[in-house]
User: Fold Pre-mRNA-processing factor 17 from Sander lucioperca.
Amino acid sequence: MSATAASLVSYGNVEKVDLADPDAMAHLKPLKSIPTMSVAVLNSAPEVAVKEAVETGTHLDPSLKEVTYNPTFETMFAPEFGPINPFKSQQMAAPRNMLSGYAEPAHLNDFMFEQQRRTFSTYGYALDPSVDTHQVSCSSYIGAVDEAEKNKGLTVFESGQKKSEKRKKIKGGEAGEIDNFLGPWAKYIDEKDGAKPSEEEQKELDEIIAKRQKKGKNEEDAPAEEKTILHVKDMYDYQGRSYLHVPQDVGINLRSADAPDKCYLPKKQIHVWSGHTKGVSAIRLFPSSGHLLLSSSMDCKIKVNNHNMVPLKKHHRSHSKAVRDICFNNTGTQFLSAAYDRYLKLWDTETGQCISRFTNRKVPYCVKFNPDEDKQSLFVAGMSDKKIVQWDIRTGEVVQEYDRHLGAVNTITFVDENRRFVSTSDDKSLRVWEWDIPVDFKYIAEPSMHSMPAVTLSPNGKWLACQSMDNQILIFGAQNRFRLNKKKVFKGHMVAGYACQVDFSPDMSYVVSGDADGKLNIWDWKTTKLYHRIKAHDKVCISALWHPHETSKVITCGWDGQIKLWD
Assistant:
């Protein structure tokens, strides 16, 4: 011990220690053993005086599946305590055990549940499921409580109003008495026989009748005032010939009945007629010679153009609404126009005068003269009311109606030396008619067929090219059988929804058609191969015509209002 004390002193930190002092070395001596030690009791949760009122209600664990007592509605649906996720929406934060919400298992009669559900959906209130149904009061309902008080808590299965008694009829005697027996035709006891309505009833009736007449009344549009403008200086040349005279100085014989020996593909655009302000709906070439071009448009005008790029000859302000179709007679001296103003008009090609007007208060979709020389005074028109109507120009009256189609009639094409004509319709069928016989003798309709709103007869009269709405051109035989030629199907263009007119080259080498993209498509007739495609118009190319005397001249028109010549 003395050695330890000496070492501490030698270290220099401790003063010299007196070894005789008992307290100086007390910390180095071992403790004395104590026989007993007392343990103090510690209160870890002393009572604390609280100033604020503390909520003493029973709280339920949200994760509990079962409760041993019957908690109140407020306790069951009290908000949760503790930190919450601030990013949860109200719907996400709500307790739920299925995707659409929280469904708890409960024993409930099916009828009662359906009764309360229907009552809630009809009246807007239902019984509170947490309240004992034996003690029903105003507070027992949830939803529209005011409505529940008003209806006295009636459900949909409990009718509040008593059924009124049935009106009694006058007894009509025995069935054996023929004269006195009234049976079910007997009048009611309180029925009045007054046939004449009172003044108030008469006023109401007059108002109803006036409304019906106004609603059901067709637009009684007066035919538009016709106007013709000549765009050339003189109507006649130095020999007194009008522009209907077939020119002989254009390099080809326009009076020839023979088609060119060989036709070629058109390569480029050589002329544009841009006289129309809206989309062009149809173009027709002058019969046999093709030296004049007739065009109709949605701007209500019809124009007569010279196909040899001479400026516009004439234009007619013809109808009050868009013109749908046009057709020359055999000589070209007259033409017909059909428009959405429900009028068909006959025009003089040379003077531009409107000769006569025809209407049956329906929209004409197509119009055709009978091509027979002895029937040039008759024409047929396909109407929006599913009928084909035949008019006589001389009398202005309807002489025949062909009423067999189930949809609006789109095309009429004469075949078999003009003894018959073929019509197509929105009912997706093709019908063949004998002239002047209002019953179709041939009806072609297959489940796979689509509507065919454009039909063209081939130059040799043997084939009908039909533009089908499933983006292909179908070929039907035009003699006797009218069979579909399954080997000749022309595809590769998009026309669904548009009546793009088809045409043949004069030598039957090519088939041409416009499409919805404004392209001119040219197929080879023999192989049905798509040879050539030209971007012709900015909008739909609605019609394409191959000139009957030219080897490679094709005229197209589109909804961009332009007519173009290609060579």
Summary: The two ends are 133 Å apart (CA to CA). The longest helix spans residues 199-216. Helices lie at 2-11, 73-76, 90-93, 110-123, 145-150, 199-216.
